[in-house]
Amino acid sequence: MSRRARALLSGLAVVILFLLPLLPEILGARRLVFRDAHMTHWPWRRVAMRMLSAGEVPFVNDTASGGQPFLANPNAVLLYPTLLLEKVLPPAAAFNLHYLIHVLWAFFGARALASRFGLSSGAAFFSGVAYAFSGTMLSYGSAFANAGPAASWLPWCAAATIDLLRADSVRRVLGAAAAGGLAFGLQLLAGEPALSLLTVLFCAVLAVAGWLGATGPRRPRALRIATGGLLAAVLAGAIAAPLLVPLGEIVRLTYRGQHLYSESAFGASPFALWRAAEWFFPRLSGDPAALGEGAHWQFRLHEGEIVYIWCVTFGVLPLLAVLVGAVRRDFWSGKTLLLAGTGLVTLLFSLGFAFPLYRLLYSVEFLRRFRYPIKFYLLTTLCVALLAGFGVEALRRRRPGVREAAVLGLALLVFAIGFAGATPGGLLDRVVRPYLTGFPMPPESLMPAIRRVFRADALLGAGSVVLLAVVFFTGRPRRGAADALAVAALALAFPWGLPLFVSADQRQLARPPDVLRYVKDGGRLYAAPELADLALAETRTAHPKVSPTVAKLARIQIEEMIPATAAPFGVRYIFDEDPDGSYGWVNRIAGEVLTASRPEERARLVRLYGGRWALAEGGSALPGFAPVTGFSVAGHGLVLHEAPAAPELRWASRVHRRASLSGALELARSDAFRPETDVVLSGSRDEPAGRAAAPADLRVFALTADRAEVDVIAPADGHVIWSRTFFPAWKATLDGSPARVLLANGRDLAVAVPVGRHRLEIFWNPRGFRAGAALQAAALLAAFAIAVIEVSRRRPG
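The structure corresponding to this sequence follows.
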């Protein structure tokens, strides 16, 4: 059988084996609900598709925090090609496939990269499985609509870099640059900038190593590499231009554009050395689909950190292949030393501030806008996956000896100790039980599940040792041994990997929340921030009657309208709890001021920014808001309150000036500020307001997410205020001439209007997106032309 036929069959086997257990998700009967998939990505996708169906370009997400950038938000993933699946598949199926496809794409990419490193088809197959079905890749690929695709493009970018290093003609340089530009451009469109930076870093390491290790004149090679790299970068930037150009217009006033993370935030969620136990016992972190039954038993070991990557295993079989191969001389070469060194360095940086050199990153202002050092661990995982292929290749070349047997014997001993230590009252009980103190479920209920899973992992690990020994120690390995090991590695990943794809019945999730009938008349909803509880293991304290599964919790969050779970049903929020910094800077600051305010001050700000509804726990009413209904969800009592509807567009004739944003917000929440007539604008110094004039007559002709058109009949000079979050991309015309859009009340939009009758239009500037789309079209046309030339030259005769 030819190499191409074997690659085709092995790829088909991976696709079938992976997708078959997930058939309900593929058909859309169930929807992925783990973490951001449910809380952010699904609601945003539905809002965007509703706007597109109505013929609107989703420039602004009207449901989020007073209107937030949509197309220009990398975390929304609205410009990525998989959005087209929505046109041919049911919504849940299209949404799920966006995640699942990229796990498979990571496999094909890692396999292609391993082949570029010179591995045989079987060893490359093994590396592809090791990367795609690692704990890190599946943790990304099951929960994060941006990180999963970005991680899947990493090996493709690296493979294109190696092609560029080997290019010995202008035609080959152009082909490699086009492939690299396309891969990196699509990774940028996926919207995970930290992983894109790591991709650039990894490709740069490969380029430098390839240049230093090349024979012959270095200057011409360096010129080819630099030219090809520059061309790939330009092409990638142009492909991602519909996102990057609009983002460039607003990034200065996003949270990430203004805020530098503190030391604790910059080092949040590092890799902890104790988690290395997951390399051998992958389900140490528990079942992500459960709130009880052993899930998150180690949560207290994280000392309050978010568990950003649920599982960090490399896969037991790939790790064994690396360990066994590493004791052989023929395993080590310039390539494996490069991969081992890169993997070790990135592992150290994933430790965060526990690694002293991590502080160097903290000293760079640009890098301090990112967080989660464990993202470095993705590069560690890719390096280990490639080294696993080299390990299999080394074992295939020559029969193992005593050293290899000793490594496998030691691994078998570890699994035997683990199995024996998981008996009642054994070592596992003594280690784990203290960390269960204070859990909603008693240790007596949790420990049996923890022991059962730990023992099962020990048996699977021991089986991996035996399998590797049988394949390579019993005579000369047969052809196809590496392929069989790859299929075994995939099968062994299923017990811990498939549970990461937590899903719930789509019919249940599609049912509107019962309380929706009260808020269907419009107005924005203020959901108290304490309602959004991210610590799932602790959720039972707030919901004593909840069934201990994430699927049930997903429905509860919809019933409680936790931001932004009710956005698909038309609910518009006044402030979302936004932990990732993708939203507006001024909106985030205003929200933090609101949360830190006294009840009467909080009520003023909610009303000022257009809030009509307030949802909170019983006894947490805002002054001026009357209770509408009380309800209970899984034993959690909530009350919906209402205040008179506030207009989104209003007139202000009394102007205050404040020299700082904090001063503007302080005034806006005080009883000295009258929302019916006042506006606070920025100024060089604090200035008191004069007297209010007669109100203007506002006649609204259009009011959408990204546009307001109004006739103004003003008896005196004043300002039109619109309850939308301020960004530089907001533009205005007054009687057809450009007018300046001002920051009002610390968050909103304002346009000065003189006395008389005028036509005012405020709109989100579409020019950046149009320019980006034109650049993308040109780049795709150029890439297509290069591909046609490449194919035509390869065609014989």
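DSSP finds 29 helices and 20 strands in the chain.
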